[in-house]
Amino acid sequence: MKKINVAMIGVGNISGIYLKNITGLFKELNLIGVCDLVRERAEKAQADYNIPKIYETMHDAFADPEVDIVLNLTRPYEHYEVTKAALLAGKHVYSEKPLGASLAEGIELRDLAVEKGLMLGGAPDTFMGAGIQTCRKLIEDGYIGTPIGSAAFMICRGHERWHPDPDFYYQYGGGPMMDMGPYYLTAMVNLMGPIKRVMAATRRTFPTRMITSQPFAGTPIEVNVSTHIAGTVEYASGAIGTLFTTFDVHYPGQARFEIYGSEGTLIVPDPNTFGGPVKLYRPEEKEMREIPLIFDYKENSRGLGLADMANAIRDGRRARADYTQTFHVLEAIEGFETAGKTGTWTELKADYTPAAPMKKAVLAGILD
Fold first, then answer.
1. 335 near 348, Cβ under 8 Å?
2. Last residue in a domain, options 101, 122, 143
3. Last residue within a domain, chosen from 291, 308, 333
4. Bridge partners, residue 288, by sequence
5. To the nearest 10°, the Cα dihedral for 200, 193, 324, 128?
6. CB 14 within 8 A of CB 71
7. Residues 318, 322, 328, 329: is their CA dihedral positive or negative?
8. Would residue 228 count as lying in a domain?
9. Which of 12, 28, 77, 325 lies most in the core, judged by the most C-beta atoms within 10 Å?
10. What does the alpha-carbon distance between residue 106 and residue 100 come to, in Å, rounded to a whole number?
11. How far apart are CA 45 and CA 52, in angstroms?
C-alpha cells in the first residue's frame, strides 16, 4: 500500500487531533513535515509524533518533492494565501474550513485547482462519520418519506470565554456562520441535496466584546462581522430549510438539528461531531426512537476527509470532501450575508452533487 505524504501548515489549536489521527489511525497517510510561524509548536509536534521534518517556511514545504498533499490548518483569513501558494507549487491541498474567507477567494482557488489538475477540498469531514452517514442511509431508504424541510440551530455566547486567542473569530473570515456554519451546511447538503438560493437577516449585536479567557483576559475585541444570522435555504428539490447561527445568546446545551419528511422526522446529531445520537420519529410509533449507528468513525476522526483525498488521488476518483462541496458551502455562507444586506434572495450558481456515501471499512483507517 503506497502511502500519501502530507505536510502540515499551521500547528495551532485544531492540530492536535489531526496529528493524533494522521499518525495513529489513517493507514494511508504519512505526515513527513510540519511548519508553524511559532517554531516551538512545530518542534513539540515533531517530538510528540516522531515527524521527520520541520519546514522553516511554508514555501519550503511546497518545494519539497516528497510532499503530495498540503494540509492547511492556518486561520480562516490565511487559508487563501496558503492554499494558493501550494496549488501554484503543484501540490494537492486539503484545508480546514472555510475554503476561503470570501467567495472571490473561493472562486480563484477553485479555478486554479481546475487549471492545474489538482485536488482541492477540505473540512468539515464530520459528515463522513457514523452519525450523518446513518442519517443519509435512513433518508435514502425512505424512512421519513419525501424530505420536506430542515431546521438547524448553532447557539452560543461566543468564543472569547474559552479560546486562548479569540480575536480572529470577530474579524474578516470569522463570525458564527463562517466558523460553525460549514458543519451544518455540509451536513444539510449531504442529507437534502444542493441549495438553490438563500435568504437571511443578519446583525452585529455587540460592537465590542471582552476576552475573559487566558492569556488575553481583559482585552477588548472590536467586532467587524455579523454575529447573529437567521438564514433560510431553498433546496434544489424544492424543500425549505432554516439555519440559525449566533455568538450572542446564552443557551443551556446543544441546539437541535432536524430533517422533516412526509412520513417522519429525523433528529440529526451535532454536525460538529462524528457520532450520534440519531433519532427517528414515525407516526406509527408515536415516540422518538434512537437508531443504531451503522457506519464507521463514531469518535473524533478529523483527518477522515484528508485520508479519503489520499485514497482518491491514488485511485483516480472524486474525493468526498472536494472543492465542489467546500465551494458550495462558501457560496451559501456569503449568500446569507449578501441577502441580509439586500433583503432579497441570493441565487447560488455553482453545480454541486453530494459525493458517494461511505462504505463500511474492512480495516479501520483504510478507506474504499
1. yes
2. 122
3. 291
4. 281
5. 110
6. no
7. positive
8. yes
9. 325
10. 5
11. 10
Q: Is residue 362 part of a domain?
A: no
Q: What angle do CA 365, 192, 312 make, to 5 degrees?
A: 30
Name the residue range of residue 78's domain.
Answer: 4-122
Q: Tell me the one-letter amino acid at 311.
A: N
Domain co-membership, 132 together with 109: no
Give the side-chain half-sphere CA count within 13 A for 274: 18
Do 144 and 114 belong together in one domain? no
Residue 30 sits in a domain whose CATH number is: 3.40.50.720
Asked whether the beta carbons of 229 and 176 are under 8 A apart, the reply is yes
- 265-283: per-residue pLDDT in tens? 999 999 999 998 999 999 9
Q: Determine the pLDDT at residue 137.
A: 98
Domains in the chain: how many in total?
Answer: 2
* 25 shares a domain with 135: no
Question: What is residue 299's predicted lDDT score, i.e. its pLDDT?
Answer: 97
Residues 184 and 235 occupy one common structural domain? yes
Q: Of 23, 85, 38, 27, which is closest to residue 58 (Cα–Cα)?
A: 85
pLDDT at 7: 98
Cα(59)–Cα(304) distance, rounded to whole angstroms? 25
Q: How far apart are the first and last CA of the chain?
A: 13
Cis amide linkage into residue 277, ω under 30° from 0? yes
pLDDT in tens, 152-199: 999 999 999 999 999 999 999 999 999 999 999 999 999 999 999 999
Backbone CA torsion sign across 113, 118, 123, 127: positive
For 8-62, what is each residue's pLDDT tens digit?
999 998 999 999 999 999 999 999 999 999 999 999 999 999 999 999 999 999 9
